[in-house]
Amino acid sequence: MIYLVAKLFYKDAFIKVKIYGEDKRLKVYYLVPQHNIVNIDEKSFVLNDKNMMLEKGIPTYLFNGDAPISLNILDKDRPLIEYSPKQLHDAINSKIIGEMFNSFAKGEKISLGNLLSIATFVAVLGVGFFLYTELQNVQEMITKIIEFLSNGGI
Q: Residue 49 carries which DSSP code?
């Protein structure tokens, strides 16, 4: 089903990723990559066009579950990888967060993304405060109704 949706709607953008796990299972994913990195289950994998192969016309990449770099099945001298896909994913995320904090620290102009994130935070606080005050009003109305009904009603 995923293959059919990807083939119909993302014909030129999607790729197929095969990951061989330590438990000797093969997992197949159809996704649209972000630049040359694919994120799967909080793991990041780097796509290398030299290691791409076509399978039924679909660009396909092979990965060992422990290596974040795509495998070339024709290469007999594979380099040893000293870091895992989870470590790569964490490094990318920490780099993004660090860059966001550094942009505020350097005194750079506020970008549109930073401005939108601040505006969203303020809007969420405003909506939360409004709902909190309205919740107290509703609670007061309910207690008045309960008192009225417990005193005999009409």
A: G
